[in-house]
Amino acid sequence: MARGRGGFIGQDGLNAPDSPTGVTGTSGDTEVSVAFTAPTDVGGSAITGYRVQDGTKAHGASGSSSPVTVTGLTNGTSYTFNVWAINAFGYSAPSDASGSVSPAFARAVFGAGATTSGRSNVLDYVSIGTLSNASDFGDLTESKRNLAACASPTRGVRGGGSSSTNTIDYVTIATTGNATDFGDLTAARYSLAGCSNSTRGLFGGGAASEVIDFITIATTGNATDFGNLGSAPLDSFEKLSAAASSSRALFGGGQTDNSGDVNIINYVEIASAGNGVDFGDLTVARDDLCACSSAHGGL
Known about the structure:
CATH superfamily of the largest domain: Kelch-type beta propeller
Largest sheet: 4 strands, antiparallel
CATH topology of the largest domain: Neuraminidase
Order of helices and strands: EEEEEEEEEEEEEEEEEEEEEEEEE
Strand order of the largest sheet: 4-3-6-7
Distance between the termini: 52 Å
Helix content: under 10%
Number of strands: 25
CATH architecture of the largest domain: 6 Propeller
Radius of gyration: 24 Å
Shape: elongated
Structural class: mainly beta
CATH class of the largest domain: Mainly Beta
């Protein structure tokens, strides 16, 4: 039997379900997908649905199971969410609130690369939530390949590339148009890797380079030296890849000047400048690989 915490006036609270638990939110474009764990004690009858509302009760949605998506939210605004379980006898008490989550514009931008006629400066975009072909976004400041990219929720940044350029340029993801000069890397290089959290971007390695540079994505300017990918003899990495969480960046695979392809994965703490530290190994040594992650990523 439920613990009797639920039920509004006129409802049978003693037979209402227990509250859902483990409420979390995942941001989308003007929406948040709210996941939760159903209560084990459903009360006097089976659960017929769930109600989700934000902390101000201004936005809500209903569903038959987890997750439930709440729409009509404002991108960049922080929300928390509570969930109620419902059966024939009424509503449970509200769940504990989720952590704060902010919906964000969901767009992917693809840029540059090699074509049959040479290097490209073209930027394409897609709306991640809608299946469709890409549309023209604008152009980079240079035609290049073998570059790296990173992004915040609002701005995409690309750096380096063939032939050994130190250029960094950026776009505002929500607004189509040509890229704008951001600043310069500390050294010109190509076949480097990029990754970021929501505030800081890292560019690591590249041809004949062991350097990691960092930028503050919201503030244009030249990159600053962060540290090195690793220590000798793992000195210079190119054709590597990178991925990141909100706190940690990983650089994996690639080639070194003195030992060919490698299976090395090194990591750094994004908030603290310093050299890479051994994380582990890939299953196979290889170069020209790619990477992604569940929280931000790299190209």
